[in-house]
Amino acid sequence: MAPRGRKRKAEATVVATSEKREELENGREQVEEAVVVIEHCTSRVYGRNAAALSQALRLEAPELPVKVNPCKPRRGSFEVTLLRPDGSSAELWTGIKKGPPRKLKFPEPQEVVEELKKYLS
After folding, report:
1. What DSSP element (H or E) covers 94?
2. Which residues contact 6 (CB under 8 A, 6 or more apart)?
């Protein structure tokens, strides 16, 4: 028979995870200015693509801050989101459900810049 302590710890972890998600959602609402957030998995390939993309976004819109992985990223994720001061967000790119091959997960920087221009206009 398995000890009961393990099950309780698992339940506590689920509660803690849901509390963290609520904190993240609440944190997004308190943005003072528009911010571009790039969330990417921590593997090397994802990092290189995120760096190229953040550089392209900074060149195109230097007044917008670009944050890369402000919190722990999800496994296999590559997303670009525009957070607005009013609390809403616009997804510029998501590569979570794309692939295989892996290269489909990553956008061309120009594609994301064009999408950003649509939302800023």
Report:
1. strand 89-94
2. none
- pLDDT tens track of the chain, all 121 residues? 666 665 555 555 444 444 444 444 444 445 688 899 988 887 766 667 788 888 988 998 889 899 988 888 888 788 899 998 888 889 998 887 877 777 787 888 898 899 898 888 7
Q: Are 113 and 64 in contact (CB under 8 A)?
A: no
Cβ–Cβ under 8 Å, residues 33 and 67: no
Q: How far apart are alpha carbons 51 and 109 in whole angstroms?
A: 10
Q: Percent helix, strand, coil in the chain (nearest 5)? A: 50, 15, 35
Beta bridge partners of 36: 66, 82
> Within a 10 A sphere around the Cβ of 88, how many other Cβ atoms?
11
